[in-house]
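does this look right to u?? flavin mononucleotide version
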Amino acid sequence: MDHQAFQEVVHYHEATKHHLHRYAKSLGYMDWQNQPNPFRSYEGAVSIPLPLLKEDPPAGYLELYQRDERQTQPFQVKTVAGFLELSLGLSAWKAAAGSQWSLRINPSSGNLHPTEAHLILPPLDSIASGVYHYNPLMHTLEKRAEVPAEWWQEMGRHFDTHGFLMGLSSIFWRESWKYGERAFRYCNHDVGHALAGISLAANLFGWKATYLNGLSHAKIATVLGLDQTRFPHLEAEDPELLCWIHHGSGMDIPRSLPEEIIAGFATLEFTGQPNTLSRECVNWEIIYKTARLTGKPDTPDRKYDFAPSGGINAAVASSSAAAIIRRRRSATSFDGRGAVTSNQFLSMLEKTIPRQDCPPFDAELMEPSVHLLLFVHRVREMAPGLYFFFRNDHDAGPIKRSARSDFLWKPVLEGLPLYLLEEGDFRHEAMRVSCHQEIAGSGAFSLGMIAKFRDLIQHEPYRYRHLYWETGMIGQVLYLEAEAHGVRGTGIGCFFDDAVHAIMGLKDNHYQSLYHFTIGHPVEDPRLTTYPPYHHLQNR
Ligand SMILES: Cc1cc2nc3c(=O)[nH]c(=O)nc-3n(C[C@H](O)[C@H](O)[C@H](O)COP(=O)(O)O)c2cc1C
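got this back:
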């Protein structure tokens, strides 16, 4: 256990709390001159245009959460391209008052998109085995290195399934440009959203994404070539994770890579010069320090057993899973009237519980460690009030003991770990603790994600990132669930940390609120015009 690292990480967390009287440190204004380019490209690397899907996979929305080997597609350029389009591609362009900006399948705090994706592909029908960077703007793969085709025999022996590797990295500057020191948190939320999106989109092609939890940050940097790349100052990509995307969803997959293969990646020649994102960057030192301290070491492979399927499924729109994924958006305001039914509400909560063979949580990030403190405003057949939803059994005792002693802890439905804490109108309170954002009080419900904190990070400081990833994965599921039930969600990274803890009665850092989310009936902004995601590639 590295006590020093633990203390520094706790220091970062404390220093980046927003308080009612003081926000975490940031520039305090938008430096538009230096707004970072949200798209990285590797200049000089061979760029391979990917085809866009002619037809979306036909699976219905609920099939997203079931595994069906019959849908397994071969690994080909067109299927890998389709998977990228439905996980990290563009979802639309918006325009208003003379400016235009793109949205993506994966959400991102402030639409700043710090997450980059890299693929290590075996030889496919028309492209060679190599390390590629995915450029979602152009929907291209930028070839960074050739990988000897023979390595895939070794990979095949190691994993005992066909597959490819996919890595995620973060460019902290993209978020810190706007959010200053708190940005490291947001980058990690975004990784979680992207990981969930990857796991769910992979399932549409009959593939499974398994998180390689044994690998260190250093090894991931080697495999992705990030440690050999000369990045512009403060614009480096920090390695986050590597997944094996594979056939054979029931297979027992190792969670690391053979040493010889990693040593091989260190000898590859990586090409392409990363583009410069801003003319000038600000060095938010605490972010880079915390990134170092939460860098993962090598750890033994861990496997997690989750309970079988839960089975509360309120009826959803008949849209395909892909249609729901494509139309996921963040609500910017709610109508202040619309409700959801209790069945819809329970079904959304249920989807956030990790289940065996159920994406996205069967990517097996970690033991579930995040729970939901719910501000219920308008859920039919349920009293408005404060509720709590446990995503595992073993935190129930400690949380109940450290929470306010006058809470009711009244079970809502037999067999579901949902409890009424206190009846009442919490609309104002929900708004207040979410940085006074109206969307937290004007929807059907909003929530704070309460994570087991101190004990996890004390032993393994890298869990700080994992906890944020887990909250992002929960957020991604809630976004899609909201869309499928005809309402809309929004992730909320801006909240007053300790004000939330005060509502719960939490007095120390054994549990901390890490992310908020809200769901309700959206009001569209009539000033915005929408264009199709890849209209700019029409002539390709
Ligand atoms: C981690 C995270 C934090 C966010 N925080 C807020 C927030 O505090 N307030 C808000 O209105 N939107 C918030 N959003 C929504 C983003 O602004 C939104 O995802 C982004 O503008 C892209 O739009 P889209 O989700 O419709 O694609 C957050 C999103 C994420 C992923």
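Residues 183-204 form the longest helix (22 residues). idk if thats expected tbh
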